[in-house]
């Protein structure tokens, strides 16, 4: 019931339904997890942590509570703690692409791209439609100066998602690196056609056109 309310955006009704469920089943960790997720959804991450903590008191093996705790800590920019909880969630059997993606993002926030790489790759392997993980994988490769591999990844992202302006921009940057100016100009133009206010793409296009003159 509470999930139906949540989908419709009826947050107050959802909260009330969950409070009733908690009252009826105080020993069940699930409504605590759901209530915490509801609070996280409205950016009340500190309050959400209280509910996840209660869920984990009731069931220390609750992978969903561990994962949601990680999300709350990430949103609070407490990246070390977030990473710790994502790893704990994996230990308890939560081995989905989302966990790998979030672990990768924790490493990126700490500027540890080399440690983020395998997590973004794994996430993209687990779900071929996970464009964002693939894109982040490409960014990490580029930041580690593995430009040829990064370029191929950005090409794949643009094929899978022709509306990904940032992928076209980064593809353009990679093309500039290899002095492929026509291809770079085309990529920057594509980025701007998707997102006309893409400042970096506009700057890249201007610089390339100056070089081509």
In short:
The chain is mostly helical and 213 residues long.
Account of the protein in words:
The chain is mostly helical and 213 residues long. It folds into three domains: 1-84, Tetratricopeptide repeat domain (Serine Threonine Protein Phosphatase 5, Tetratricopeptide repeat, Alpha Horseshoe), CATH 1.25.40; 96-145, no CATH class; 147-213, Alpha Horseshoe (Serine Threonine Protein Phosphatase 5, Tetratricopeptide repeat). It is built from 13 helices and no strands. Helix 2 (11-24) runs antiparallel to helix 3 (29-41), helix 4 packs antiparallel against helix 5 and helix 10 (147-160) packs antiparallel against helix 11 (165-177).
Q: What attributes characterize this protein structure?
A:
single chain, 213 residues, mainly alpha, Serine Threonine Protein Phosphatase 5, Tetratricopeptide repeat, 3 domains, 13 helices, 0% strand, TPR-like_helical_dom_sf, TPR repeat, mannosyltransferase activity, TPR_rpt, Tetratricopeptide repeat protein
What's the number of helices?
13
Rounded average pLDDT? 93
Helix content: over 70%
Main sheet summary: none
Q: What is the end-to-end distance?
A: 64 Å
| CATH-level-2 architecture of the largest domain | Alpha Horseshoe
In terms of quaternary structure, the protein is single chain
Q: Give me the count of strands.
A: 0
Please indicate the percent range of residues in DSSP E strands (runs of 2 or more).
Answer: under 5%
How would you classify the helix and strand content by structural class? mainly alpha
């Amino acid at each position: 019931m509470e999930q139906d309310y949540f989908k419709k955006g009826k947050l107050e009704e959802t909260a009330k339904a969950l409070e009733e469920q908690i009252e009826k089943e105080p020993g069940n960790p699930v409504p605590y997890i759901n209530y915490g997720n509801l609070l996280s959804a409205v950016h009340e991450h500190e309050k959400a942590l209280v509910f996840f903590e209660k869920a984990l008191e009731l069931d220390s093996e609750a992978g969903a509570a561990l994962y949601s705790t990680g999300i709350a800590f990430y949103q609070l920019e407490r990246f070390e703690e977030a990473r710790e909880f994502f790893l704990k969630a994996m230990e308890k059997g939560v081995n989905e692409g989302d966990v790998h993606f979030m672990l990768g993002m924790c490493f990126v926030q700490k500027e540890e791209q080399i440690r983020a790489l395998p997590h973004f790759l794994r996430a993209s392997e687990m779900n071929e439609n996970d464009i964002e993980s693939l894109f982040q994988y490409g960014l990490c490769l580029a930041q580690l100066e593995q430009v040829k591999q990064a370029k191929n990844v950005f090409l794949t992202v643009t094929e899978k998602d022709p509306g990904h302006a940032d992928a076209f921009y980064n593809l353009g940057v990679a093309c500039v690196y290899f002095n492929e100016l026509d291809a770079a100009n085309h990529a920057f133009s594509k980025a701007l056609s998707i997102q006309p206010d893409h400042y970096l793409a506009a700057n890249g296009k201007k610089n390339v056109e100056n070089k081509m003159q």
